[in-house]
Amino acid sequence: MMPCASFEYPSRDSVRFVNSAPKYSLQALPGDDWEVRLTKAIIRNISWLKDEQGITTEQLARRCDEFLGTPGATKTSTLNGLFAGKRKTISVPEVIMFATALSVPVMALLAPSRVQEIEVRPGSTMNPVAALRTMVGIEAWLWGPPNPLHMWHGSEFPPQSSAARATETIVQHWRAEDTMFSAMAELLDGIEREADPLILSAYLASTQNALREYHWWGQELARHALQPPRLPEFLNWVPQLDPAQFTLDFARGVLAQRTAELSEIQWKTGSDDATPSNTAQ
Question: Comparing 279 with 265, which gets the higher pLDDT?
């Protein structure tokens, strides 16, 4: 009769080691597919921004409720589970909600600048700048094929769609609007502090060019049946005005209107000694 082989039961230490592998984590775990890894990366960004802004989970929940318009809709326990890595997916509405609650662009959650690499598709990583340009589609708009995100489709690059062109127009119009605001602010500030005439002339030329650019991209928006966002009241003349008619005298009138509006706001809120008489100037 063959002797029986001895059998040793595993020690408690070895059992404890085996069972110590985390079940949930915001870091990628073995077996996580790309969707789960991407979800965890987005949630890590949400958590990091929350901590950077110094807000608690309860405060974030209230901000989410304000976004949803439903008090108590976002449970603190739900967010705790989210930050513990228990979620495998995150929806587009949730990404928009968290971005709004944290006062950051949606892209700040998808392609944050604080990380070294972003997995833009399974197994393919890019630095934040390249990832953002690829996600938004800037590479395709500026240079045409090949867009790194589409190279895996094959050698044939699909023609730019109307949706891509419309998105490009929206981004370019936003840039033109931002440039116009900056140029206008610089000119009005120069008028207010009575800058040298040569400097004012340069500010005026810069503002006229910015207005032309804004008008051009506004026309491009109209081609896609899109309406630009409303401008502040004191700039509601911009869409109708020929940039060549924008003179220093016109700018002085804009400054006077803006000053009157600010005075009226201060008077209504009691934040200054402004009176109704000087708001009518």
Answer: 265
| Angle subtended at Cα 186 by Cα 242 and Cα 235, rounded to the nearest 5 degrees | 45
> What are the CA-CA distances from residue 48 to residues 33, 34, 105, 222 (Å)?
22, 21, 15, 39
Q: By three-state DSSP, how is residue 119 classified? A: strand
* Numbers of helices and strands, H then E, in the chain: 12, 2
pLDDT computed for residue 61 by the predictor: 96
Both tokens assigned to 200: 């004012």
Q: How many CB atoms lie within 10 A of CB 60?
A: 22
Per-residue pLDDT, 40: 94
* Burial profile 165-184: b = 16 or more Cβ within 10 angstroms, e = fewer: ebbbbbebbeebbebbeebb
φ/ψ of 121, rounded to 5, equals -155, 165
- Give yes or no: residues 216 and 237 share one domain: yes
Q: Is the pLDDT of residue 97 over 90?
A: yes
Helix axes 162-192, 248-269, angle to 10 degrees: 90
267 found inside a domain: yes
Does residue 4 form part of some domain?
no
Tokens of residue 111, six digits: 């392609």
Mean pLDDT of the residues in the chain: 81
- Lowest mean pLDDT across 57-66, 128-137, 154-163, 194-203: 154-163
Q: Among the ranges 145-159, 210-224, 232-246, which has the highest mean pLDDT value?
A: 210-224
Q: Are 171 and 136 spatial neighbours (Cβ–Cβ below 8 Å)?
A: yes
Indicate if 59 and 143 belong to the same structural domain. no
Domain residue limits at 215: 162-279
Would 9 be classed as within a structural domain? no
Query: Residue 118: beta bridge partners?
Result: 126
Is the distance from CB of 47 to CB of 80 less than 8 angstroms?
no
